[in-house]
Write a structure and sequence with these properties.
With 156 residues, the chain is mostly helical. It has one domain. 60% of the residues lie in helices and 6% in strands. It has seven helices and three strands. It has a three-stranded antiparallel β-sheet. A hairpin with a 2-residue loop joins β2 and β3. The chain is globular. The protein starts with a helix and ends with a helix. 30% of the residues are buried.
Length: 156
């Protein structure tokens, strides 16, 4: 999660604080394990729907844990100082996940191009998934977060 927050330009946070929060919230651990299982299965079976579902769900869960849902739900992890960090890109990413035009999806001639915000993020997402396959969660989050944030700022 720290990699994702860093990659989306929210900022740097103490990893030990985040792990402490995970230790207190079994529901979040269960959710992340489910996302992990779904992503592993999606990669193994080359199931694009499972891959995009898991990537989006894990990103949304990171938001719920780190920031909460504005106007609905406080952050689950109170160790994260909400006054630190730039949450604008992260907010926009989550909004775009719910937009039919901007949502994360596969397309292209063979359905192998991963698109977000109408930008091809395949190369960056592949780098993230390589880190994931090595069990490097920080690298996975960092690369995926950078791919998402980069798609927001890339000129059309």
């Amino acid at each position: 999660m720290t990699g994702l927050l860093s990659g989306t330009k929210v900022g740097e946070f103490e990893e030990k604080d985040l792990f402490e929060c995970l230790g207190k919230e079994q529901d979040i651990v269960t959710f992340f394990e489910g996302g992990d299982d779904t992503l592993k299965e999606g990669i193994e079976n080359k199931n694009r729907d499972q891959i995009t579902f898991a990537l989006k769900a894990m990103t949304e869960q990171a938001m719920l844990m780190s920031r909460g849902v504005p106007n609905l739900h406080d952050s689950i992890c109170h160790a994260i100082d909400q006054t630190k960090g730039n949450w604008d890109d992260f907010d926009t990413i989550l909004e775009d996940f719910n937009s039919e035009d901007m949502d994360l999806h596969f397309e292209g001639e063979h359905g192998k191009e991963l698109i977000f915000n109408k930008k091809d993020i395949t190369k960056e997402a592949d780098e993230a998934l390589e880190e994931y396959k090595k069990d490097n969660w920080n690298g996975f989050g960092l690369h995926f977060g950078m791919a998402l944030a980069g798609a927001l700022h890339e000129k059309r």
